[in-house]
Design brief:
The chain contains four helices and no strands. The protein is mostly helical. Helix 1 crosses helix 2 and helix 2 packs across helix 3.
């Protein structure tokens, strides 16, 4: 049987992968605000998420994440760049604090969320995975 080689990620997986990453950032910020008993609406969540969302866009472009959008290792690499650039933007551009504890918590949470949804896709929705072997 003659099979064509894979031409890259599943067409179904690529467009939705960045949306899951955006959702992960929003969840991270919303949980953080709730754990600190900080109220506010969507405007405050977007304001706090902004440096990380910008960083996520940079990470997707720099890492060419669309090549393997559902691989867990892509999630790890995206998390490293997103947290690093996001914390830098948060401090230098948005003039907000970057306490060591916040850097650690953001690194752990963003990595867990970025890798977590990819592991779910690999395990339970392999037809949407770019490489089911991960």
């Amino acid at each position: 049987m003659n099979r064509r080689p894979s031409m890259g990620p599943s067409l179904a997986a690529m467009p939705i992968a960045p949306l899951f990453d955006v959702a992960a950032i929003v969840v991270f910020v919303a949980l953080g605000r709730r754990s600190h008993d900080e109220g506010g609406g969507i405007g405050e969540v977007v304001e706090i998420a902004a440096p990380f969302l910008i960083a996520l866009g940079v990470a997707w472009a720099v890492l060419c994440a669309w090549r393997a959008p559902t691989k867990p290792s892509t999630g790890v690499h995206l998390a490293i760049v997103t947290v690093g650039v996001g914390q830098t933007l948060r401090n230098l551009v948005f003039e907000r604090g970057t306490a060591v504890a916040f850097i650690i918590v953001s690194a752990v949470m963003v990595t867990a969320l970025f890798v977590g949804w990819r592991l779910v896709v690999q395990r339970w929705f392999p037809r949407f995975a770019s490489d089911p072997t991960g």
